[in-house]
Amino acid sequence: MSGTAGTPTGRFPSRARVRKRAEFLKIQDGGLRVSTPRFVLILSASAASHASEPRLGITASRRVGNAVVRSRAKRLIREAFRATRVLWPAGIDLVVIVKRATGESKLETVISEFLAAKPQIDKRLRTLLGAASTPAPA
């Protein structure tokens, strides 16, 4: 979990995405939240079948802006997720809700916002991974 963000590497395959509405709703209902000025990050333990790598889902409502603005925000978030892979351990699902438009923000701004939230993210991950490794009572 240590290290700094680098340049985005690799592709963003479909197995690294949260794709179905039911998955989004499950993560949003049971996940732990971290707020930043522009985003809400919701962290959740992944289903066992997808535990090989972290997955990302992005939500941007029309309140954020028109389609061009929403698409740009999603692209920036995807690239920031790829560039900050050190923050996201395997077995974690992340849903990012865009609170407000990214405007003229650059990739470095979004990455620095993720890195600034790193202490809160680490705290939530310890809670999640600690709870995931503890067996459920019978």
In sequence order, what are the helices and strands, one letter per element?
A: HEEEHEHH
What is the topology, as strand order, of the major beta sheet? 1-2-4-3
Total helical elements:
4
DSSP strand content: 15-25%
Q: Provide the structure class.
A: alpha+beta
Helix content: 25-40%
How many structural domains in the coordinates?
1
Largest sheet: 4 strands, mixed
Rg from alpha-carbon coordinates: 15 Å
Find the CATH topology.
Ribosomal Protein S5, domain 2
Poorly predicted tracts of residues? none
Using DSSP, what is the number of strands? Answer: 4
The gross shape turns out to be globular
Structural features, described:
The protein has helices spanning 21-30, 67-83, 107-116, 118-133, and strands spanning 32-35, 39-45, 55-59, 92-98. Strands 1-2-4-3 form a four-stranded mixed beta sheet, with helices on both faces. 38% of the residues lie in helices and 17% in strands. It contains four helices and four strands. The chain has a single domain (14-128), classed as Ribosomal Protein S5, domain 2 (2-Layer Sandwich), CATH 3.30.230. The chain has 138 residues and is an alpha+beta fold. It is globular, with a radius of gyration of 15 Å. The model has no long low-confidence stretch (mean pLDDT 84).
